[in-house]
């Protein structure tokens, strides 16, 4: 557990320092219109995504890193 | 709770699905009114979910969710060791998001109530855009407290505490592609099994050849999950999304799931979604469909969610945009219908409702489920 937290903190520290390295964005803001399309959302409808996560959480032992809301107990 | 697994810390992820991938902005003002229905394996669950989100100042947005599961259960676990039952679970959540430069801080609280299971959880997440807004880093912490009671046993009262640590990275890869990597560690401590579930063991003194005794789980559990997701804008207006997740815990369970989604607009108002997902897990170290004798080991499980099994989901969705030009205070809206067909196949959980077989020789269990969602979304 401590090892996991340490790794996460170390990774964050590295990421916090990186902006000073002068990396330039390779996709310019005016080139991101396709990415802004609603069909490019990982989870377009939050209430629906939360429900689907809940359906799986209630029936599978795997949990976490779903990328969308879960919640409550596994009642259904 | 009779047919439930212990509460999971889901509140942490309240925002993960909403995290903006293109510069730090607050989530859109929208409301969803959803009706959900699950039917499979002798279990029927349905109810509403109402989600409302509104920006209340230049930098802050509030959200609230009201969710109900109305449950009628006559699953194989229930009919073989207990009685069919009905119950209701009500979950209420509130959350707030605060935007500060390129950071978004979010926190929330969730309360879930059943007749024999109360769960509370709270979360805090922070996300930060960097590298010309091509990268978003987010991390979160959540804590949950469960209180478990048992119908018919007023002296039974147990607790479980849960903690969750999350880290997420979203990355703009190209003009057409986004990538997201998520990690999550969850630790539980307390009463972690279902007080109504039993294991079976060989008992030559019983006419069936076996008897039941209560499950016993360890009082701690730690799990890790890592997931990689990518979404790609095709050469025409459509997107394809892929996902892979690997999971392991200190109960010996290893699992993975992989899936693909395809979204295809038709005209200006219609959107079609197609989905396939595969999930597979190995059993917990202390799981057995049939123990050799009573109290055969310290920890005992025969919960089919602890067994080796796989499932496949075939999904379809259709969305129709309404008010495309807006109407008074409404910017736009949509009506949505989703249907998932899920097929469950167990590798070492046997169907003991089938008669005429020796203990341990019964056919393996399997069932299919239908999951339907109908919802209205309004942006304002």
Compact description:
The complex is a heterodimer of chains A (76) and B (380). With 76 residues, chain A is mostly helical.
What does this structure look like?
The complex is a heterodimer of chains A (about 80) and B (about 375). With about 80 residues, chain A is mainly alpha-helical. Chain A has a domain at about 25-60. Chain A is built from two helices and no strands. The longest helix of chain A is centred in the N-terminal third of the chain and has 16 residues, at about 1-15. Chain A is flat, with a radius of gyration of 18 Å. Chain A starts with a helix and ends in a 19-residue tail after the last helix. Mean pLDDT of chain A is about 75; it is low at about 70-75. In chain B, the strands form two sheets. Chain B has a 16-stranded antiparallel β-barrel with strand order 1-2-3-4-5-6-7-8-9-12-13-14-15-16-17-18. In chain B, strands 10-11 form a two-stranded antiparallel sheet. The longest helix of chain B is centred in the first third of the chain and has 6 residues, at about 75-80. In chain B, strand 7 and strand 8 form a beta hairpin. Chain B has a single domain (about 10-380), classed as monomeric porin ompg (Porin), CATH 2.40.160.40. Chain B has one helix spanning about 75-80; strands at about 30-40, 45-55, 60-75, 85-100, 105-115, 115-130, 135-150, 155-175, 175-190, 200, 210-215, 220-235, 240-250, 255-265, 270-280, 310-320, 330-350, 365-380. Chain B is an all-beta fold and about 375 residues long. Chain B contains one helix and 18 strands.
